[in-house]
Amino acid sequence: MPPEAEPPAAPVARRARPSAAWLRLRGALSTLASVPITLFGLAVVTFFIGRVVPIDPVLAIVGDRAPADVVERARLDLGLDQPLYVQFWRYLGQIFSGDLGRSVMTSNPVTQDIARFFPATFELATVAIIIAVLIGVPLGVWAATRQGKFVDQAVRLFCLAGHSLPVFVLGLVSLLLFYAKLGWVPGPGRQSIYFEGMVEERTGILTVDSLLAGDWGAFNDALYHLIQPAGVLAFFSLAYIARMTRAFMLAELRSEYVTTARAKGLSSGRIVWRHAFGNIMVPLVTVLAMTYAGLLEGAVLTETIFSWPGLGQYLTVSLLNADMNAVLGATLVVGLIYVVLNLLADLLYRLLDPRVK
């Protein structure tokens, strides 16, 4: 007798593949989850920097000639007699409560000082990065499309100069030429003396505050004072952005899909800007984000040369005065800026490139 036929196997249920939107959301959530870990590591680094530097915070507060009992009392008040782990948890508690200590130099809370100095750096860095992006990106693309020609050689020389010239040399030459000799721009500082205190401070950004107040004289004065330091910063950022854009574009223009697009008769402009440039947006976002973060941390030399009252100058003066609360607080803010911009760059990846999960 023929063997009985086996019953057909039950179909295996397939797992539903997660949607692209869910994958992007999961990737964004994992990125956000890494932020507290990064901030914790940043707090650890700043705490131990404050403990290993050869500066006694107690002597910075009470002075070198204070009696021994005053020094000991101050040490007890600061909790420096406690074990390191106790001091660290106390430091974490202060950070999360927004307390970065009190500045010895200004006698103000460090958070208040940073809130007062940071808008000047934000204004300077934002104008500089806008100039650098508007000029550097097209310049890099232009050089890549004319590889080996005179334009390409000129752009490469320009980028080399941007990386080679010391910022203090360019700043001093700029002041000597455009301010002292030609008189085209005002001198160092953020505002002329006769405009100080005339505009109500709302955001701390002079150009914005003067526009909100409708004071065009103060706006023009603030803008003229901004031109030189922003131009110097933009020059160095522009050179780096143009060089990286050129390198990214050269790699894309050698790709097979570009050769195929040319064979199909697509215009050069469409190939360059729609296809090749679209594919370099993801790495270019990283370059722009890190460049902007570097500017926001406070351009120390530029702010010092042009007497720009920003975060970089505040950090430098605090370090020279052994004001460790101010130094560590400003360092923590700089690290936070890098973390936030890195996070924004990562989130932009997921919007610009659907392949990033």
If you had to describe this structure to a student in words, what would you say it looks like?
It is a single chain. The protein has helices at residues 20-52, 57-62, 68-77, 84-96, 110-145, 150-164, 167-181, 206-213, 216-253, 256-263, 268-279, 281-296, 300-305, 311-320, 324-352. It has 357 residues and is mainly α. The N and C termini lie far apart (58 Å). 29% of the residues are buried.
Q: Which class of secondary structure composition applies to the elements?
A: mainly alpha
Number of strands: 0
Unreliable stretches: none
Determine the fraction of residues in helical runs and give it as a percent range. over 70%
Q: What does the overall shape look like?
A: globular
Q: What is this entry, summarized?
A:
By secondary structure, the protein is mainly α. It has 15 helices and no strands.
Characteristic key phrases:
mainly alpha, 357 residues, single chain, 15 helices, globular
Topology:
Elements: H1 20-52, H2 57-62, H3 68-77, H4 84-96, H5 110-145, H6 150-164, H7 167-181, H8 206-213, H9 216-253, H10 256-263, H11 268-279, H12 281-296, H13 300-305, H14 311-320, H15 324-352
